[in-house]
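Lab notebook: predicted structure, single chain.

Context: the supervisor wants predicted structures on file for every construct in the current expression panel, including those that have not yet been purified. This is the next one on the list. No modifications to the sequence; it matches the entry in the shared construct table.
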Amino acid sequence: MVAHRPPPGLREHVRRVAGFSERTEGAMFRRELPTASVTLILSLGEPIRIGSATGSGTFTSFLAGMHEIPVDTEHDGALSCVQVDLSPLGAYRLLGMPMSELADTVVAPDALPLPGPVWRDLGERMAALPGWPERFELLDHALGARFADGRAADPEVRWAWRRLARSHGAVPVGELAAEVGWSRRHFAARFRDQVGLPPKPAAQVLRFRRALSLLSGTGSISDAAAEAGYADHSHLVREFRRLAGAPPSALLGELLGQ
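Prediction complete. Output recorded below exactly as produced.
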């Protein structure tokens, strides 16, 4: 894995960029868990199989909107790609389309409103370059061009998303709506349009990621439930089954290779 730090003008929108090259003796399977990011995978040639409760397919490159369900990925033992983790509002600015249309969905870049020669066959063009620095330079150019022309989210939605993210999903939806001065219905509709998920499911994903981080630090389930804002141990277990498809103990064993 090769990490890349985007230029300052992109860092508000791009959370992480990394190049990956992986070779295994057989097929490699992973379960990708819900996260508060929109993920763009630009393959350098090898196909990736995607499966979830909302659909499946084989892609070379793809974009995954915000999910509140797990997504399974598999390749045949060889994969080279660039992964770009976008903030939801960064993805909204990049694509210029309702992010709700991408919720719980994986699509090929060709199906997205990314016109122009900068984006055409981007994965293939990266594969033809001699190394990661040149690939990252091409990516920065493509992202910078789109962000410069993109439409920003509403200031109210930007503020509400930052507040929700900083609290790990702990701020009630009604409180957020009141603080931006909108009706709860109008706030929920604008938030869903520009973030991807409605406020309550988005908060649940943020809380899940907080609990997962706490548990990964060897904390107890009850302690993680209390600190992350779940009602009790059972509430956390139910949410893990819904969002990750497994109870906390089984999920942590899988993530830690036990």
